[in-house]
């Protein structure tokens, strides 16, 4: 998701006083704010599971077939213990995790620019004020992880399928800050944030993420579809 921006242009009532106004407010002609809103913790952070009316062997074959046909990299298929591990790297992290939202705005003279976006979106550009200086950010986010599918035999030839996942979100920033008539560029990175289907995570700056369980639900639905 890209940041949305809005531009507002307002002319002063006394246009003839414009030079005087600019001189008087030069020190404060650019201002802005940045707000990070953390995500709401999910009510249920337990692993997702379903029961199917098929034996573990048929369910295992359906699981391997489904994951192989999607963008998963099968790393371990333990047939004896009926555990399957598969790595993934989605193009859009915000479909699988919730890291809250960001709102920022800057105003130069009578032009105001506003930005509102999901904090887990893969690529975004926005502006804010850092140290009372106009600062432009270009932020990328990459999500990697490993899905685990556990098959548990039940009575009457049924099988319980439990899906869980571990996640790692890595963010990088290109920071451009205005100094006099020049723009100074700095490359910044944050330590990867790691969490699982059953936990969230928060870094030292208060940035927080939780799983949406969309991945786990999609895997279970895909396996069921293969069996039906």
Mind explaining what this structure looks like?
By secondary structure, this protein is α+β, with helices and mostly antiparallel strands. The protein has one domain (30-227). The protein is 16% helix and 50% strand. It has helices spanning 18-25, 56-69, 214-227, and strands spanning 7-9, 30-37, 48-52, 73-78, 83-88, 97-98, 101-108, 111-118, 123-130, 133-153, 159-179, 182-189, 193-196, 201-202, 208-211. It is elongated and about 75 Å long. This is Lipoprotein. Keywords: Signal. Residues 1-35 form the signal peptide.
Write the layout of secondary structure elements.
Elements: E1 7-9, H1 18-25, E2 30-37, E3 48-52, H2 56-69, E4 73-78, E5 83-88, E6 97-98, E7 101-108, E8 111-118, E9 123-130, E10 133-153, E11 159-179, E12 182-189, E13 193-196, E14 201-202, E15 208-211, H3 214-227
Antiparallel strand pairs: 1-8, 2-7, 3-11, 4-5, 5-10, 6-15, 7-8, 9-10, 10-11, 11-12, 11-13, 14-15
Helix pairs in contact: 2-3
């Amino acid at each position: 998701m890209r940041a949305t921006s809005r531009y507002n242009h307002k002319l002063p009532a006394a246009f003839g006083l414009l030079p005087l106004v600019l001189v008087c407010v030069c020190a404060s002609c650019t201002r802005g704010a940045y707000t990070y809103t953390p995500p709401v913790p999910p009510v249920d952070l337990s692993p997702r599971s379903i029961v199917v009316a098929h034996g573990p062997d048929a369910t295992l074959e359906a699981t391997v077939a489904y994951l192989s046909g999607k963008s998963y990299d099968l790393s371990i298929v333990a047939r004896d213990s009926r555990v399957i591990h598969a790595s993934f790297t989605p193009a859009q992290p915000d479909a699988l995790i919730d890291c809250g939202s960001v709102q920022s705005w800057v105003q130069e003279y009578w032009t105001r620019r506003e930005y509102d976006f999901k904090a887990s979106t893969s690529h975004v550009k926005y502006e804010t004020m850092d140290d009372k200086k106009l600062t432009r950010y270009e932020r990328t986010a990459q999500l990697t992880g490993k899905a685990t599918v556990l098959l548990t035999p039940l009575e009457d030839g049924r099988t319980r399928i439990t899906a869980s996942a571990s996640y790692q979100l890595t963010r990088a920033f290109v920071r451009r800050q205005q100094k006099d008539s020049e723009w100074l560029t700095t490359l910044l990175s944050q330590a990867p944030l790691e969490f699982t289907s059953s936990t969230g995570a928060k870094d030292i700056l208060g940035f927080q993420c939780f799983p949406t369980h969309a991945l786990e639900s999609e895997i279970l639905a895909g396996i069921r579809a293969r069996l039906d």
